[in-house]
Design brief:
The chain is an alpha/beta fold. The chain has helices spanning 17-32, 34-41, 52-63, 97-106, 128-131, 144-157, 197-202, 207-222, 235-239, 252-278, 291-296, 323-328, 334-351, 366-382, 390-396, 405-439, 515-526, 550-557; strands spanning 45-48, 68-73, 113-118, 136-139, 161-167, 170-176, 470-473, 484-487, 504-508, 532-536, 539-543, 572-584, 595-606, 617-621. α1 (17-32) crosses α2 (34-41), α3 (52-63) packs across α16 and α8 (207-222) packs across α14 (366-382).
Length: 648
């Protein structure tokens, strides 16, 4: 709407914060209309992620009239964030992203209530009961596992989710919930490996993150000092580690030792302090590693691993099948990595000193590969990540897409526009339910209202025919006229494991129920699952006992242990399979028996008030089994007819 073009974003045009806010609100009301404006004002939003997209999104939401927002992020601010996450400044480095983002937007919208949380979205405190407080959830994450988790929680709590992501100049926004595709419905066809720079710099959790960090380190130490580098702020600090002899010549081996202790010990100790502050539920603190400590590490047999201190220039030139080629696929010990790291730096300065300052990483340069392989594995050791062989590192290195501030801004804007359209559908659903209540014909689809459910109704909103659009941002060129491509929302895939069947909901008094009682009374009794296998976080917590294996299964199932003792918590999701009900499928290596068991997800809430129920629990929504895969067709006869016994 044209009214938005008159939003007074610059305080210099108004003279006061109060006047700017008043004029902005007036223009918002004019653009949105009274009803939508009122719904915006009473909406409560959850923003997951305060990085590149999250900063832009939070700024948009505040300026777009939303007054009640929670934001969650597990990271602290790194200097590498400052070139694209514009709510942060240099003096914020080391502070939690969510807290600083809240403080920054409060400066131009003081009346907005923003609750900042430092933590992992997958922690128990952010489970289904927490999500039920919000009208809409907006993702600004760079982690596929976390995005999938948020998707599952939003499905379980029937909360609309506006998902986003960027890869360099490309980006996408997807609207999820109700009667449209979820995050898992669309097969991810992009095989190019891309990684978020803030994850690489501060919170790696995959070997690929460490490989890319090591590549940046290589180019920082041996490349053009004027190049824009993710680790550019370390240039001065690394310079201070240089050691020269009495003639002023760099002593390469001493310099390499100093670099080692700075990167893998001192810097990791600082990172550990930041993670201690964040109290990360899922991430163990990193392990500082000194050079002396690395040299003392042994393999599983107690032998100290040795390696040639100098990088070999022939390590990548032998033919496949030779001992050298086989050695490339061996994972170095920490001791070997330390020696390779020191040896590569020493070789580079002693033998190729005239090239230092001009080099770029090349997979064809054996010293470069040795350096990156050693540095990445040492960092992997710091962060409890599996090490990779030299051959694996060589294949990973060299593919990273930087984050682009403009892409983040466009994607966050598209999320905000879709948010308005989602709320329009929420309003339609609320009016429908009000009319049903007035006529005494309220339908709940078998779902009992939950005490923490913020919305007035219990039915899912319909988005399939809404104004919402999935949007794809592409790099513009002269051959195509559109920068942003929009598409109508699609219905869910009927075989999607995440959204094809809504989770059952069960409320029990507390998590002190024993596993045996919960399975016998709730799962087998009320939910009528004859032979249950129960999973939590992909780990089995109960397997059906057959008569000939009762003694062994009792030990595995721990029927007397409480639910909380097995890690379950209020609002968690469990997966239940029924071994007595299955469909034949094509056998595979993962499923040699060719049986697809019926299964469903179930959200388990704890509420002491249900103790007044006759059985001490309540089924808020009965299970709906996930649809089985299609049954394999019988083989056709040579003439194309159905074999005998195949039916009509």
């Amino acid at each position: 709407p044209h009214a938005f073009l008159r939003l007074p974003f610059s305080p210099h045009r108004t003279g006061s914060q109060a006047l700017m806010t008043s004029r902005r609100e007036a223009h918002l009301k004019e653009a949105l209309g009274d009803d939508l404006y009122a719904r915006v004002k009473r909406s409560r939003l959850l923003v997951v992620g305060a990085g590149g997209i999250g900063c832009e999104l939070l700024k948009n939401l505040v300026l777009a009239g939303f007054d009640d927002i929670d934001i969650i992020d597990l990271d602290t601010i790194d200097v590498s964030n400052l070139n694209r996450q514009f709510l942060f400044r240099k003096h914020h480095v080391g502070q939690p992203k969510s807290t600083v983002a809240k403080e920054s937007v409060a400066s131009f919208s003081p009346h907005t209530r923003i609750q900042a949380h430092l933590g992992n979205i997958m922690e128990p405190r952010f489970a289904c009961r927490y999500f039920s407080q919000f009208d809409v959830v907006l993702n600004a994450l760079d982690n596929a596992k976390a995005r999938s988790y948020v998707n599952s929680i939003c499905i379980a709590t029937e909360r609309p989710l506006i998902e986003s992501g960027t890869t360099g100049f490309k980006g996408q926004v997807r609207v999820i919930g109700g009667d449209v595709e979820c995050y898992e419905c669309q097969v991810q066809t992009n095989t190019e490996q891309t990684f978020a720079v803030c994850t690489i710099r501060s919170t790696p959790d995959r070997p690929e993150h460490c490989v890319q960090w090591a590549k940046y380190l290589y180019e920082l130490m041996f490349g053009d000092p004027n190049d824009d580098n993710l680790l550019a702020d370390l240039k001065h600090e690394l310079k201070q580690e240089e050691h020269s002899d009495h003639n002023g010549k760099l002593v390469a081996d001493r310099f390499a030792e100093n670099i080692f202790n700075k990167l893998f010990k001192k810097d990791i100790e600082q990172n550990r302090e930041l993670q201690d502050m964040a109290k990360n539920f899922f991430r163990p603190p990193p392990i500082p590693l000194s050079l002396d400590g690395a040299m003392r590490l042994t393999d599983g047999n107690g032998n100290i691993h040795g390696a040639n201190g100098n990088a070999s220039s022939s390590s990548s030139t032998t033919n496949a099948g030779t001992p050298a080629a086989i050695a490339e696929q061996k994972v170095w010990s920490v001791h070997e990595c330390a020696q390779k790291f020191i040896g590569a730096i020493t070789t580079m300065y002693n033998e190729r000193g005239d090239e230092v300052g001009t080099l770029q990483f090349s997979k064809e340069d054996p010293i470069a590969v040795d350096f990156v392989a050693a540095a990445s594995n040492l960092r992997s050791h710091n962060f409890h990540i599996a090490k990779k062989s030299r051959w694996d590192v060589q294949s990973i290195a060299g593919r990273i897409v930087p984050a682009i501030a403009t892409t983040n801004a466009i994607v966050a804007g598209l999320q905000t526009v879709n948010l308005y359209h989602v709320l329009e559908q929420v309003m339609l659903q609320e009016k429908k339910e009000e009319k049903q209540a007035a006529n005494g014909t309220t339908h709940t689809n078998g779902v009992a209202p939950h005490s923490d459910d913020k919305r007035s109704g219990t039915q899912q909103i319909s988005l399939i025919n809404s104004k919402c659009r999935n949007a794809w941002l592409q790099l513009w060129d002269s051959k195509q006229s559109k920068l942003v491509i929009g598409e109508r929302l699609s219905a869910p895939r009927p075989d999607c494991v995440a959204c094809s069947s809504p989770p059952a909901r069960v409320t029990i008094t507390d998590m002190d129920w024993t596993i045996g009682d919960f399975v016998a009374t709730v799962i087998q009794g009320a939910l009528q699952v004859k032979e249950p296998v129960v999973y939590f976080n992909n780990d089995p917590i109960w397997q059906h006992q057959y008569d000939d294996e009762e003694d062994d299964m009792d030990d595995d199932n721990c029927p007397e242990m409480s639910l909380s003792g097995r890690g379950l918590y209020d609002g968690c999701i469990i997966d239940i399979n029924d071994l007595s009900d299955w469909t034949p499928v094509e056998p595979t290596d993962d499923n040699p028996m060719g049986k697809e068991y019926k299964s469903f997800n179930c959200v388990v809430f704890a509420d002491v008030s249900v103790g007044s129920c006759p059985k001490g629990f309540r089924i808020d929504r009965p299970p709906k089994f996930k649809p089985p895969p299609p049954t394999p067709a019988p083989p056709a006869a040579e003439n194309g007819s159905t074999p005998a016994g195949g039916g009509k």
